[in-house]
Amino acid sequence: MPPLWLSSTLLLLLAILLSSSYRATAAAAESDGAASRMPSFREAPQFYNAPSCSPPLPKGRGAACSPHALVHVAMTLDVAYLRGSMAAVRSVLQHTGCPQSVFFHFVASSAAEYLRATVGGSFPSLAFQIYPFADEPRVAGLISTSIRAALDRPLNYARSYLARVLPECVRRVVYLDSDLVLVDDVAILASIPLPDGVALAAPEYCNANFTSYFTDAFWTNPALSVVFEGRQPCYFNTGVMVMELGRWRDGEYTEQIEEWMELQKRIRIYELGSLPPFLLVFAGRIAAVEHRWNQHGLGGDNYRGLCRDLHLGPVSLLHWSGKGKPWARLDAGRPCPLDAIWAPYDLLLRPFAIDDS
């Protein structure tokens, strides 16, 4: 797919126009009372496999182990971020050549029946399964407070437990956060080669100040900082990852991450949620992926939420990591220019909306 090039001025105009509609419908939804607090979504367009693809996957959990599953995608699902998740799923299906050969694995901690009905209603032909996050009570006891409350939700740590949650027949999975959209074929990302013994692939950002992700208590303690000896650690964002689950299990990486979380409870060695334990275990030991697959930070910084532009180069995935989410800014009438790219994937069913399907 060609690079995504859009004028910031054009995007801003589109975002302003969209925000007017979002403000009006959000106000109407608020007046509907408590019933509107559980969002409803319209049915997405149907996307079909190209002739060269394998046969479509059947619905139901049995398809998870089907040899025709071309790509496995894992995401978390909860009511608070469901709107973003639905847009992300639509973007995956819309831009892949074999949408009926993608199996979605969703991890949820509550409202499983509502989530199952909602996903199935918007994507009637989707092959997916929802798994309970059985390790949530344990994770809740391991979490230390971070700079932003949203980062402290146990479900935010579910990515560390996919090797336990997903069936053993699933060997490779693409993990995606809920605040992103793809504009390229997920099958390309899923086919990234991983060298022998490497369990994880993600875009690396070696120009970032890696030391800032850990406290002085970590760097001044030789018994701790020695963990990076012999490695060239670089920052990577855990919102987009290709994971080899068999290798993950063999390396007992979930247990290693938990050990660092337990240490964090005794000695504060980092500040930023679920990311630092990943860096401690994997930084300098992953397969690098092109930056086009995670144009992250579009939610702005964690303190002021300022609008950000794309990094230089082609774009295959836009990621609104950070404080600001596109749906919230659109509803509030304060969109950033790039939020206009997210808006067409939104499936929220608004009052008095005209069905365009």
UniProtKB/TrEMBL annotation:
**EC category name:** transferase
Pathway stated in the Swiss-Prot or TrEMBL entry: Glycan metabolism; pectin biosynthesis
Entry EC number(s): 2.4.1.-
What is an example of a Pfam family matching this protein? Glyco_transf_8
Any GO molecular function: glycosyltransferase activity
Known Gene3D superfamilies for this protein?
Answer: Spore Coat Polysaccharide Biosynthesis Protein SpsA, Chain A
Provide the alphabetized UniProt keywords: Glycosyltransferase, Signal, Transferase
> What span is annotated as the signal peptide, if there is one?
1-28
Keyword RNA-binding tagged: no
- Which terms in the GO cellular component ontology are assigned? Golgi apparatus
Q: Which InterPro entries match?
A: Glyco_trans_8, Glycosyltrans_8_dom-fam, Nucleotide-diphossugar_trans
Q: Does the keyword Transferase belong to this entry? A: yes
SUPFAM superfamilies xrefs: Nucleotide-diphospho-sugar transferases
Annotated family: Belongs to the glycosyltransferase 8 family.
PANTHER family per record: GLYCOSYLTRANSFERASE 8 DOMAIN-CONTAINING PROTEIN, HEXOSYLTRANSFERASE
Q: What is this protein called?
A: Hexosyltransferase
| Taxonomic lineage | Eukaryota, Viridiplantae, Streptophyta, Embryophyta, Tracheophyta
